[in-house]
């Protein structure tokens, strides 16, 4: 059983527990999707806007998952910016490309 601590009350029916478990599973699935997209992009990385384009959504869902991956140390701010839609946006990379990114920036 997934860790669903805090996502339901002890007094909730089993359907609430099942719903919480499905959310936890989905979050992990979406994190994997975000990480896969960033790994595919390589050292070039992706902005949140580009990530959302690849995932087919412009809501906060994928930005939030990317943020969670940053907290886990799996995704990094590359230190580079890309102009998209007249905005200077952070380019995110998978942590495995840290050294290649540093060489690119040198």
**Percent of residues in β-strands:** 15-25%
pLDDT averaged residue by residue:
84
CATH class: Mainly Alpha
Low-confidence runs (pLDDT<50, min 5 residues)?
A: 1-8
Q: Would you kindly provide a written description of the structure presented here, covering whatever features stand out?
A:
- α1 packs across α3.
- Helix content is 52%, strand content 17%.
- It has one domain: Arc Repressor Mutant, subunit A (Orthogonal Bundle).
- By secondary structure, the protein is of the alpha+beta class.
- The N terminus is likely disordered.
Could you give the topology of this structure?
Blueprint: H1 14-41, H2 48-55, H3 61-71, E1 75-84, E2 87-94, H4 98-105
Helix pairs in contact: 1-3
């Amino acid at each position: 059983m997934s860790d669903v601590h805090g996502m339901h009350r002890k007094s909730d029916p089993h359907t609430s527990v099942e719903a919480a478990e499905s959310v936890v599973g989905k979050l992990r699935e979406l994190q994997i999707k975000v990480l896969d997209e960033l790994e595919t992009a390589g050292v070039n990385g992706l902005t949140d806007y580009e990530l959302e384009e690849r995932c087919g959504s412009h809501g906060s869902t994928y930005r939030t998952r990317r943020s969670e991956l940053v907290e886990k140390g799996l995704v990094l701010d590359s230190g580079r910016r890309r102009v998209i839609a007249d905005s200077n946006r952070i380019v995110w990379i998978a942590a495995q490309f840290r050294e290649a990114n540093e060489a690119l920036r040198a």
